[in-house]
């Protein structure tokens, strides 16, 4: 269940958002991708999700070449995205949002898995028939994670999940990421909260102008003085 990205290119017209990016996520890893605004982090995740077509390179998951495939094929292959800004459906109920996560599933265990999400998040259970708009930002983030889990992924990608959350919810969110990882899911975590991301991840990549400029074990990146100067202050 490893993700292998090789020489990935994402371009919007003349803007080359991702340039020759090579990255891997091994089974059971938490890998973080760090970088400033505009470094290309969201473009990377959108290419992995199948929302944008890469201009070059290769995306292989679990031995399957997904490069030319659409978003549904990525979900079926076991890759789920928790998008930037959560992107939950605010006019739908909490329950309907969770069901959306399973829209590609053809099995009859969806309801059981949605109930498991309610066991994990009691705050969502008590609001299951309310519109998602009544949830706090932190609860909406939990709902976005829950919705991704309902797809039964083996790899969860999260795009700046801590953005805009209170410190308490940030702690809970990173706790949740560790928890689902301990249950066997691989994690690709895009963050601007460098400090928390490196504390949680096993390995990391630093993106600058669409290119990987540093990579390695999380402790080594955290100890890298120039890295600290460039990023840790902003975390
Ligand atoms: P942020 O933290 O702001 O989301 P990011 O690291 O995720 O930043 P991207 O959103 O991937 O970076 O953007 C990378 C580059 O691509 C930027 O120069 C951005 O302006 C450009 N870009 C992103 N999306 C588009 C688009 N739809 N059309 C044109 N240019 C885009």
TrEMBL record:
CDD domains: ABC_TM1139_LivF_branched (cd03224). InterPro entries: AAA+_ATPase (IPR003593), ABC_transporter-like_ATP-bd (IPR003439), ABC_transporter-like_CS (IPR017871), BCAA_Transport_ATP-bd_LivF (IPR052156), P-loop_NTPase (IPR027417). It comes from the Bacteria. GO terms for molecular function: ATP binding; ATP hydrolysis activity; branched-chain amino acid transmembrane transporter activity. Residues 3-234 form the ABC transporter domain. GO terms for biological process: L-amino acid transport. Keywords: Amino-acid transport, ATP-binding, Nucleotide-binding, Transport. PROSITE patterns: ABC_TRANSPORTER_1 (PS00211), ABC_TRANSPORTER_2 (PS50893). Pfam families: ABC_tran. PANTHER family: HIGH-AFFINITY BRANCHED-CHAIN AMINO ACID TRANSPORT ATP-BINDING PROTEIN LIVF. Belongs to the ABC transporter superfamily. This is Amino acid/amide ABC transporter ATP-binding protein 2, HAAT family. The lineage of its organism: Bacteria, Pseudomonadati, Pseudomonadota, Alphaproteobacteria, Rhodobacterales.
